[in-house]
Design goal:
It is found in: Cell membrane. InterPro entries: MFS, MFS_dom, MFS_Efflux_Transporters, MFS_trans_sf. The protein is mainly alpha-helical. It folds into two domains: 1-183, MFS general substrate transporter like domains (Growth Hormone, Chain: A); 195-402, MFS general substrate transporter like domains (Growth Hormone, Chain: A). The chain has helices at residues 4-33, 37-40, 42-61, 67-87, 91-118, 125-154, 156-177, 189-194, 199-219, 222-230, 236-259, 263-284, 288-303, 306-316, 322-348, 355-401. Helix 4 (67-87) packs antiparallel against helix 7, helix 6 (125-154) runs antiparallel to helix 11 and helix 9 packs antiparallel against helix 13 (288-303). The chain is globular and about 55 Å long.
Length: 402
């Protein structure tokens, strides 16, 4: 794999750290600014909304410049947002910093996926995308726990200062290692928008929303589920999230490897197994060992879908994939928000802390159904051309034989 992928992974590591580390530092931030925990929660909501709306916006704004330069500008935006958060004198200023940083998130992963895929041979594209996303998954294993520890020990502002420094390293790596690949000739914004007329692109994005939504339906409420159902101590939630992160790292790499060989079968297996494991979590959540194993499996199976889904979008939006790739990153966050809301509804309805697992299983099953529909439509569309191609090959072989 090219060294340029390392630079992209470092940027992804910083972005993943800043996205999730705030969840462990909300009490400290709320105390410093004199606001309630629910109010401090706007720092999470604001970031998620910034990713959803920022992905297409920043990608559109960057259509006239090279992808490398846009990646560098996005890392600059990320650095500025985290520095503003670290130095913010008021809560509203910190919220602004979080939103500024979030605007870089979706476009970075969207454009970065296209760049990563272009750096390697066609049969290694999903693996290259997975390598970039490894930075995001490792952030959940290393960056978030360490960032939370630093924030709780010496102050949350130091954590965001360190994250900004990670952004500087990522920026330098992109400037030094990522080649300045020319944009495709004749590709304009209208071509990028035309990709959304392709039903296969829309189906892939819907799979992203439902599939990853299934993961976060369970993980959003992991703390009360593990402490009040499984019987873990409050302090155990941190290492359970590390297990989840380790599962994400493994699943991401496996998903990337096998998606290059058989993309749709990889989606069938990962989405089907994810639905089954989420359903079983309603039972295994009552046992400490089984629940810990299940948390790791959810991380692995959930992130095994990421490289194939991202590559699916790139393949179907061929010729002008940048905007569709970025919007698909926003779709992950839409799935997170949707599943968290649905999970909250079933808990509020008195169905218990394991009820979101059923929601997750239903969402993952929906994603599997869409994958089957997508493949069926593709076979129907490709049927006649496939027959013609096979006939032509047979004629060529016959001519050679003669």
């Amino acid at each position: 794999m090219p060294l340029a992928l390392l630079a992209l992974a470092i940027g992804a590591f910083g972005i993943g750290t800043t996205e999730f580390v705030i969840m462990g530092l909300l009490p400290e931030v709320a105390s410093d600014y004199g606001v309630s925990i629910p109010t401090a929660g706007y720092l999470v909501t604001g970031y998620a909304l910034g990713v959803m709306f920022g992905a297409p916006l920043m990608t559109v704004l960057g259509t006239r410049i090279s992808r490398k330069r846009m990646l560098m500008l996005l890392m600059g935006l990320f650095i500025a947002g985290n520095l503003l958060s670290a130095l913010a004198p008021a809560f509203s200023v910190m919220l602004t910093g979080r939103i500024i940083a979030s605007l870089a998130h979706g476009a970075f992963f969207g454009i970065g996926s296209v760049v990563a895929a272009d750096l390697v041979a066609p049969d290694k594209k999903a693996g290259a995308i997975a390598m970039m996303f490894t930075g995001l998954t490792v952030a959940n294993v290393v960056g978030v726990p360490l960032g939370t520890l630093v924030g709780q020990s010496v102050g949350w502002r130091v954590t965001f200062g360190i994250v900004a420094a990670l952004g500087v390293i990522g920026l330098a790596g992109i400037a030094r290692l990522v080649p300045d690949m020319p944009k495709a000739e004749g590709v304009r914004l209208r071509h990028e928008l035309a990709a959304f007329k392709n039903v296969q692109v829309l189906l892939a994005m819907a799979m992203t929303v439902l599939g990853f939504g299934g993961v976060f339906a369970a993980i959003t409420y992991i703390a009360p589920m593990m402490t009040q159902v499984a019987g873990f101590a409050d302090g155990s939630v941190t290492w359970l999230l590390v297990l989840f992160g380790l599962g994400m790292v493994g699943g991401n790499l496996v998903g990337g490897r096998f998606a290059d060989r058989a993309l749709m079968p990889m989606l069938y297996v990962s989405l089907g197994a994810l639905a089954v494991v989420l359903a079983l979590f309603t039972v295994t959540a009552h046992d400490k060992l089984l629940s810990a194993i299940t948390v790791a499996l959810i991380g692995a199976l959930g992130f095994a879908t990421v490289p194939p889904l991202q590559k699916r979008v790139l393949d179907q939006a061929h010729g002008a994939p940048t905007l569709a790739s970025a919007v698909n990153i926003g779709a992950f966050n839409l799935g997170n928000a949707l599943s968290a809301w649905l999970g909250g509804l079933v808990i509020a309805a008195g169905l218990g802390y394991t009820a979101p697992n059923w929601v997750g299983a239903a969402l993952a099953t929906g994603a599997l159904v869409l994958a089957l529909v997508s493949a069926a439509l593709e076979r129907r569309a490709d049927g006649p051309s496939t027959v013609v191609t096979r006939s032509a090959r047979a004629e060529q072989r016959a001519a050679v034989h003669q």
